[in-house]
Amino acid sequence: MSAEVSQAFLDILDEIEGDSSLRALIITGAGKRFFCTGGDVKRYALIETKVQLRDMMRLASTVFKRFEALPVPVIAAINGYAIGGGVELLLGADLRIAAPHAEIGLPQIRLGIITAWGGYERLVRDIGYSRAMEVVMIGERVSAEEAKRLGIINAVAENDDVIAAALEMAAKFDKAAPLALAGAKRVLHTAATRPLEEAEPLAEETVVDLWFTGDHREAEAAFAEKRDPVFKGK
């Protein structure tokens, strides 16, 4: 996760913003060995001030916040090792599928630091305090199956073709109305990260807005006519 990689993510997110045909975004690594090995260690060695460090930290943090704001699910297809900042990357995704040989670890505490991009915060949100403490304080890599047991990932692919597994999951979103897909993600994320008194009114307003959309009317008509609905995102 160098500055260049973070900026490349932001450029791609700028390109796809507003694309109504988009149903999911899949993130994976090249090859079958590494999903992401973490931060750019060589670049970090050149940091001399706290201001420089904060600037570098904010760039990657912005990427993960943009993932969360994207109106479609973001899927991490974990094709190999996810270490340190690589785990922060997958935690920034909404859904996570790992290849059977993938391993996941947060060794920062053994390096005298902690996560820089919201990794601990998202880990506690997703798997709870006690399990997060276990993962963080021990600092060892865990297998894909153990990561699933802990709740860090959603599923382990049946074979090494984790991209196919991610695409298979993404294909299921085609049956969802685009506006409802975006609304559901927004409400779920708010419920997971904000107080209940913020999530409840958002859910209420979202369902009211969706109720009067053309897609909802189309779904009602399709149900009555015993056919599949044709959604237009309107």
Give your account of this protein's structure.
With 234 residues, this protein is α/β, with parallel strands linked by helices. It has two domains: 3-173, Alpha-Beta Complex (2-enoyl-CoA Hydratase, Chain A, domain 1), CATH 3.90.226.10; 176-224. 53% of the residues lie in helices and 11% in strands. The protein has eleven helices and eight strands. It has a four-stranded parallel β-sheet with strand order 1-3-5-8, sandwiched between helices. The longest helix has 20 residues, at 50-69. It is globular. The two termini are 37 Å apart.
Give the tags.
234 residues; alpha/beta; 2-enoyl-CoA Hydratase, Chain A, domain 1; four-stranded parallel sheet; 11 helices; 53% helix; 11% strand
Q: In brief, what are we looking at here?
A:
This protein is an alpha/beta fold.
Average pLDDT, to the nearest integer? 92
| Percentage of β-strand residues | 5-15%
What CATH architecture label of the largest domain applies? Alpha-Beta Complex
Structural class by secondary-structure content: alpha/beta
The helix content, as a percent range, equals 40-55%
Residue runs with pLDDT of under 50 for 5 or more positions: none
Helix and strand arrangement:
Layout: H1 3-16, E1 25-28, E2 34-36, H2 41-44, H3 50-69, E3 74-78, E4 81-83, H4 85-91, E5 95-98, E6 103-105, H5 119-127, H6 129-138, E7 142-143, H7 144-150, E8 155-156, H8 162-171, H9 178-193, H10 196-211, H11 214-224
Helix pairs in contact: 1-3, 4-5, 5-6, 9-10
